[in-house]
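Question (not urgent): is this output format expected?
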Amino acid sequence: MNAAAKGCVLCEEAGGEIVWSGALARVVDVREEDHPAFCRVIVQRHVREMTDLEEAERAETMRIVFAVERAQRKLLNPDKINIACFGNMVAHVHWHVIPRFRLDPHYPNPVWGSRTAGRPQPLPERYWERFRDELVAQLGEIQA
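Got this back:
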């Protein structure tokens, strides 16, 4: 399987600001102004579908996704967390992990849906440092 695919933005670019990186996947801050703490878990090599991964890799990918969710829940106490894997626009396995708040600009609509009267929630000071520490704690021994 190719490590990268020509023309794939997630093979050629980080996909956001890297918060954590391991051998299988990386976690990035999407830097979505309307949705602070919106993260992606991106598989490091180019694969189009979850079934392109070995069974153990699928399990590890989901372990990382759920670690992101747990860290967001612990640090932000959101009203809900949305987790999604589409790949219609970028056919490279990546998961969106999005904390949602009743005051966010799209709630209760999807983040890509129509805006409501909400406004973005500011992140607590030092959030990303605490988030990294929490991810490391959730994932145990990891490769940086």
